[in-house]
Design goal:
By secondary structure, the protein is mostly helical. The protein has 5 helices and 3 strands. A 3-stranded parallel sheet has the order 2-1-3, covered by helices on one side. The longest helix has 20 residues.
């Protein structure tokens, strides 16, 4: 399946793409849009007015986790971290949130493309998941 989101990805979009690929669709392909309309065959996420977006004070990662009823305590812990990293008003949500925000801001600056940021960010998300399961 093809999924699309806004270009210049940051923490919530990277984390959500990681969640999709690791837990929903291992064959997921991602398209990054810079002002264009989503392709009709793609599932949009973290875009204005879409089902897989911010709703009821949830970031996109939390929304996708709830919609797909992924019952994993580690993913729920990651959701709280990503929430605080993405929604600056809730930056104190967890102790990890400000650091994760900084890491993903730095990642965006150090990468040449959204594809590269997603690839490198997925390694960070894999590590976070493993660290929280230990």
């Amino acid at each position: 399946m093809i999924y699309c989101t806004r270009a210049h990805i940051h923490v919530d979009r990277v984390a959500t793409a990681w969640l999709i690929r690791r837990f929903l669709d291992p064959e997921a392909q991602f398209v990054f849009l810079d002002g264009q309309e989503p392709p009709p065959s793609a599932i949009p996420f973290d875009m204005h007015g879409v089902e897989w977006g911010h709703h009821q004070n949830r970031c996109t990662f939390e929304t996708v986790l709830a919609l797909h009823q992924l019952d994993d305590p580690v993913l729920e812990q990651i959701a709280r971290i990503i929430h605080g990293a993405d929604i600056l008003a809730d930056a104190d949500e967890t102790l990890e949130s400000p650091g994760i925000n900084l890491v993903f801001r730095a990642l965006r600056l150090a990468c040449d493309s959204d594809e590269q940021a997603l690839e490198r960010g997925s390694v960070i998300m894999d590590g976070l998941y493993q660290a929280l399961t230990s």
